[in-house]
Amino acid sequence: MSFVEYSECIQDGDVVIVFLGHESMMPLQVQKGAQTQTRYGAIRHSSDLIGRRFGSKVTCSKGGWVYVLHPTPELWTVNLPHRTQILYSTDIATITLMLDLKPGAVVCESGTGSGSLSHAILRTIAPTGHLHTVEFHAERSQKVQEEFRRHRVGHLVTVRNQDVCRQGFGVEGVADAVFLDIPSPWEAIVHAKTAIKRQGGRLCSFSPCIEQVQRSCEALQAAGFCELSTVEVLLRVHEARSVTMALPDFGPQEDHAHFNPAPSNATATLKTATPPREMAAHTGYLTFATKERE
Ligand SMILES: C[S@@+](CC[C@H](N)C(=O)[O-])C[C@H]1O[C@@H](n2cnc3c(N)ncnc32)[C@H](O)[C@@H]1O
Q1: Which protein residue has the closest C-alpha to ligand 1 atom 2?
Q2: Would the CB of 196 count as within 6 Å of ligand 1?
Q3: Partners of 38 in the beta sheet?
Q4: CA–CA dist 202, 182 (Å, integer)
Q5: Under DSSP, is residue 211 helix (H, G, I), strand (E, B) or coil?
Q6: Which domains, ranges and CATH numbers included, belong to the chain?
Q7: Please, are residues 170 and 181 in contact by the beta-carbon 8 Å criterion?
Q8: What is the DSSP annotation of 12-79?
Q9: Pairing relationship of beta strands 130-134 and 157-160 according to DSSP bridges
Q10: What is the pLDDT of residue 279?
Q11: Does residue 168 have its Cβ closer than 6 Å to ligand 1?
């Protein structure tokens, strides 16, 4: 198992995502001889997981069942241990598209945080690209390195435990793209410029507040970046369902020559798709910019 390559069967040491039912999942590291308790009973790793195909339905000791899924960056994003705020798939999709990330790309990122975005970047740039990610919090940088190793993507990423605003990314002229998710991105813009290739590249900065965006845009312009644009991405999920509605009664037919009124108790069942009354809205602003060829 690797987060960048699909495997057929579960092996000792793999990470699997246990799907317990609608919107309930948990990550699990497979270990010969171990057991994991769920609300449906125990999962015995040796007999229930090792050698089984990813996607299998596994019956737990109390008779209930779960699905064991191959990990993906999207599943990791909704299952990872939160050490910080993280980026979610809606923003990640836009970042991946607008930074033109693809296999072989070299990317610089800071901060690494909980590694939600990092895993998505790694899957996109594999098998020949590289991610240089900078995190100044020592424990976070150590934990995320362990996860990269466990997820068998360690060869695609270098984690540096340093302050990106003071020490930069530790590389010069190699990056196709730079991504910033730090409180003061304007302080890292000159280092981003240094990290990007002489042929040019793209930059994205994620900030929750518009004041941060304003300062970042000033720093981007001062550093000679062009094509600045800021977007906010909102996801609206429509719920599809059947509804039964009373048909309107327009009274006796002779009064409504052009209508065909329904009997007063008539109903119709319709399919509808309704937007939610409430939704998770603002996450942050994504500011994009281009460094032109030097
Ligand atoms: C919001 S989190 C990043 C979350 C990450 N994008 C994800 O999807 O999991 C911000 C991280 O940036 C780190 N950070 C803040 N300022 C930094 C700096 N100047 N240099 C390096 N890391 C920094 C913080 O320690 C924190 O872990």
Answers
A1: 113
A2: no
A3: 41
A4: 17
A5: helix
A6: 15-71 (3.10.330.20), 75-234+282-291 (3.40.50.150), 239-274 (no CATH)
A7: no
A8: TT-EEEEEEETTEEEEEE--TT-EEEETTEEEEIIIIITTPBTT-EEE-TTS-EEEEEPP-HHHHHTT
A9: parallel
A10: 83
A11: no
Sheet strands (E) in the chain: 15-21, 24-29, 35-38, 41-44, 57-59, 65-69, 106-110, 130-134, 157-160, 177-180, 201-207, 226-231, 239-246, 267-274, 285-291
Burial class (CB in 10 A: 0-12, 13-18, 19+), 44: middle
77 CB within 6 A, ligand 1: no
In the numeric block, the tokens 């119709």 are attached to: 268
Q: Round to whole Å and give the CA distance between 171 and 165.
A: 14
| Kind and range of the H or E run holding 233 | none
pTM: 0.92
Q: How far is residue 53 CA from its own chain's centroid? A: 25
Report helix, strand or coil for 131. strand
With b for 16 or more beta-carbon neighbours within 10 A and e for fewer, the 94-115 pattern comes to: bbbeebebeeebbbbbbbbbbb
Give nearest CA residue, ligand 1 atom 1: 85
- Predicted confidence pLDDT, tens digits, the chain (294 residues): 999 999 999 999 999 999 999 889 999 999 999 999 999 999 999 999 999 999 999 999 999 999 999 999 999 999 999 999 999 999 999 999 999 999 999 999 999 999 999 999 999 999 999 999 999 999 999 999 999 999 999 999 999 999 999 999 999 999 999 999 999 999 999 999 999 999 999 999 999 999 999 999 999 999 999 999 999 999 988 999 999 988 877 766 665 556 666 666 889 999 999 888 888 789 999 999 999 999
The number of helix segments (H) and strand segments (E) in the chain equals: 7, 15
Q: How far is the CA of 135 from the centre of ligand 1 (A)?
A: 6
